[in-house]
Fold this sequence. Notes:
With 483 residues, the chain is α+β, with helices and mostly antiparallel strands. It has 2 domains: 377 residues, no CATH class; 36 residues, no CATH class. Strand 2 and strand 3 form a beta hairpin. The longest helix has 23 residues.
Amino acid sequence: MNTQMLxxxxxxxxxxxxxxxxxxxxxxxxxxGAATANITPHLSVLLDGTIMKIGPAKNIHDELHARCLxxxxxxxRLAIAIVDNxxxxxxxxxEAKRLLKEAIGLPRENILIAATHTHSTxxxxxxxxxxxxxxxxxxLARRIADGIRCAFNNAQPAEIGWEKGFAPQHVHNRRxxxxxxxxxxxxFGRKGDKVWMNPPRGDALxxxxxxxxxxxxxxxxxxxESKPFALLxxxxxxxxxxxxxxxxxxxxxxxxxKKVFEYVKGVDFTYPRFVGLMSNGTSGDVNAVDFSKPRxxxxxxxxxxxxxxxxxxxxxxxxNELEKRHQRDITLDVAYREVxxxxxxxxxxxxxxxxxxxxxxxxxxxxxxPQVYAQxxxxxxxxxxxxxxxxxxFRIGDLAICAIPNEVFAExxxxxxxxxxxxxxxxxxxxxxxxxxxxxxxxHEWGGYETWPARSSLLEVNAEKVIRKTVLELLKELKGERx
Length: 483
């Protein structure tokens, strides 16, 4: 190198350094992945519940799964797992999240795990169901964590789209105002309920005690080559049922996952495998039965298949409308808060009644309804005076997803949608724990099954108001409307 060139070398190097510094860094690509984990129990596991006593699993109609999604915008990672289970206690969620934090560093606030509420699975709550069920709880936590890890392992540059369709034909409010003279006493022997869940048909019916949400939200994930690899749906419908006793099944949620696989355009069996997910919306007071019409009887599985097929057709329709509206420039965020609530524990008089009632139980005989609620009163007496309830909201682009660990009434979900600062918002219930039904204070006044104190309805009467207010505050945080 000659003297003339050496003279200008420092200037040349400075220009190179300045140029490199001024060049904007490449924006991270939005990535997403999907995976499933088999969570089918052994036949020795009880299909048991807080209220219903179903007994052990005797047969398996279809395998159960944790269906998982992973999202990564380069700075924030989020995970969603939709689990074929009736409900899961907080300890199972926390263990799955601990495993994920340990394995991949994912914060617990960034993980949304929710049960579908199929009634033909083990109910993952510790209510003295025995060693086989406790072992299943540990297995469940591990498999959920495995499924989420695999979803992140499958993550690739992706595009996402979302929109809602409608399926009004399958959602009906199951709580009805009924001629007060005909409403039977509650399990504690008291009259005064104005509302009857799943009432007898006939002229005594006055009107449903609440609305329903007819929307079917669809979230579509595709590769950047426009190949679909996952579709998450959300619909506010309780399980359909019609499953023979002792049989394990994912109900219409699992059937939807298979049907939407068949219906979505472009799906094939090559990698990445397509994952369909049906999450439960706000359906604590909603089922697929219209009590204003004569009863229809269906052979096993038929009604659930009809519902799954209709919802898969609607999801396909929405997906086709989204064909050219998938996005790649996506950022993620999460807001999370724990709120403490009092437990509706029995007073001295209720406990005395419960002990006297349980003294009438005969070995080998099915419990009467008063005996069931006497047992529940004794169970509630063992609860702490207060519980901490996790509330969560995800932002995926301009889509907001709320997570509440209760069986949430449709009117609450609709109120959250209406007041949300986001154009598109839906709620996944039974997420991150299980804290029973969530009636509004007004619904508590009207009475009925969902309001009777039990381990399936344990939170203080004003809990719905506080939860709804808190979720809306989380949504405002995600929208940048922090106070």
